[in-house]
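Input:
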Amino acid sequence: MDKQLATILFESLASGIRLDIFRLLVKHAPTGLVAGEISTALALPPTNASFHLKAMTYASLINVTQEGRYQRYRANLTVMQSLIDYLTAECCTGNPDYCFDATKASSCCDTD
Amino acid sequence: MDKQLATILFESLASGIRLDIFRLLVKHAPTGLVAGEISTALALPPTNASFHLKAMTYASLINVTQEGRYQRYRANLTVMQSLIDYLTAECCTGNPDYCFDATKASSCCDTD
DNA sequence: CCAACTATACAATAATTCTTGAAATATAAA
DNA sequence: TTTATATTTCAAGAATTATTGTATAGTTGG
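Output:
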């Protein structure tokens, strides 16, 4: 997890719609949902849902697989775990004493 | 940690400049840095640094205290810990089986 | 009080992101 | 093959966010 990817992931989560999409997909893991189910569930115009799904896919926050004419989206829990690790490491960089009990983070104190 | 605060925090982290500021402040915890030190360290025009510092302060990602004519900023590690907890909980909402070893998260499976 | 300094507020512009309908693409079904 | 369905791409405008210089407010030390 480098700074660039972290920034892209935060951008990806920094929208109510995208956060809702991610939460919805987590709730439906590991099956995932197809695009139409997502836009229906969140009452979004399909184009808008597609716009955000594309951004989230680019960020690797979600994955997509084709199923005939459907596109099935799934939350990428692995990259989310990496982001959590990154945040935890950021929080104790150089200062484990002043950072809760996160010193167990394996990648603690990396730079960039 | 509700969805609204989480979104604000992600917005706050979703910028290279603000992420740099946060990382810099974590590195200097718990002393913190005054505004001038931050803009100098990151080679930012003071107005631009102030713009981002204000946004981050509003998001509660950092705290500010006045020291005479200086404004000292510190990373808010507590809110960062809350955000990590929120992300961890999000990742296992309703699906602990498909989410690494995050099931220990106390607030797992909350909604909004 | 006055001069120097720190930092923010304001204003104008630039840049980016968001939203939506219409059109296009692709797959499936009849 | 023709029609229907699912999804995306495109284009345009709306809205938001970022950047920077200048001006202002507040603080310190002489």
